[in-house]
């Protein structure tokens, strides 16, 4: 079953159909479905937090545009497009958001700063987060396709208060990374100290 999705504005020279086709061509079916879920949840969170619903839906839809781009292409972009070379010490989990913004600008023609920043921050979060940053970060974690122990609690917290949703997610992610002895991107720690520590 083909899921229909259209955007009133693409924030790019592309039509909605062109943008959807490019997104679809850049990832497998499962990832595409996740992106539709994040788009719908971003719209819902935008409505609850008085943010532009169409803009949030678009940002959510393209947040993982670069998720399946090759390591070679990421490394080439990091080396030649002015990125912090420290990124080379991390992996594609971190690259697909930060470096993904380069591919989104180049291939989808999106220049809107707010959208690009939300995508940049969607995996690691940051000490400063705009409303759109928080919406995409949280929607990614709680979209209907997510199924992990604690997801129902995450949904409850996030729909009740967006900032608390950010804090819950960062604590959960750090817990997971430490348990699995994964390397942690310093921004993730910094963000945890701002959003997750009990007041
Ligand atoms: P996805 O792209 O929809 O799968 O979700 P995300 O972009 O939020 O996360 C991608 C992966 O990066 C997840 O498995 C996270 O646990 C992981 N991740 C988040 N922060 C960090 C970090 O600081 N270091 C590492 N190594 N992985 C992280
Ligand atoms: Fe992602
Ligand atoms: Fe995602």
Description:
Pfam families: HD (PF01966). InterPro entries: Diverse_Catalytic_Enzymes (IPR051094), HD/PDEase_dom (IPR003607), HD_domain (IPR006674), YqeK (IPR005249). Residues 31-145 form the HD domain. Keywords: Hydrolase, Iron, Metal-binding, Nucleotide-binding. It comes from Lactobacillus hominis DSM 23910 = CRBIP 24.179. The termini are far apart. 41% of the residues are buried. Helix 3 (53-62) crosses helix 7, helix 6 (100-108) packs antiparallel against helix 7 and helix 10 crosses helix 11 (186-195). The mean pLDDT is 97. The chain has one domain (14-195): Orthogonal Bundle (Hypothetical protein af1432). Helix content is 62%, strand content 0%. The protein has eleven helices and no strands. It is globular, with a radius of gyration of 16 Å. The chain has 199 residues and is mainly alpha-helical. The longest helix has 20 residues, at 29-48. The site of guanosine-5'-diphosphate has 17 residues, from helix 5 and helix 10.
């Amino acid at each position: 079953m083909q899921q229909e999705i259209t955007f009133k504005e693409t924030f790019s020279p592309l039509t909605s159909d062109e943008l959807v086709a490019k997104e679809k061509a850049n990832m497998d079916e499962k990832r595409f479905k996740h992106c539709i879920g994040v788009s719908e949840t971003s719209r819902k969170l935008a409505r609850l937090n008085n943010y532009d619903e169409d803009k949030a839906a678009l940002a959510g839809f393209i947040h993982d545009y670069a998720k399946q781009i090759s390591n070679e292409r990421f490394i080439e972009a990091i080396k030649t497009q002015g990125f912090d070379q420290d990124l080379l010490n991390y992996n594609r989990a971190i690259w697909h958001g930060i470096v993904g913004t380069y591919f989104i600008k180049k291939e989808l023609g999106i220049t809107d700063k707010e959208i690009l920043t939300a995508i940049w921050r969607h995996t690691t979060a940051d000490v400063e987060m705009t409303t759109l940053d928080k919406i995409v970060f949280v929607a990614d974690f709680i979209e209907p396709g997510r199924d992990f122990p604690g997801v129902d609690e995450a949904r409850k917290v996030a729909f009740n208060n967006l900032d608390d949703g950010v804090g819950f997610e960062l604590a959960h992610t750090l817990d997971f990374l430490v348990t699995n002895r994964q390397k942690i991107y310093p921004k993730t720690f910094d963000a945890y100290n701002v959003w997750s520590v009990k007041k």
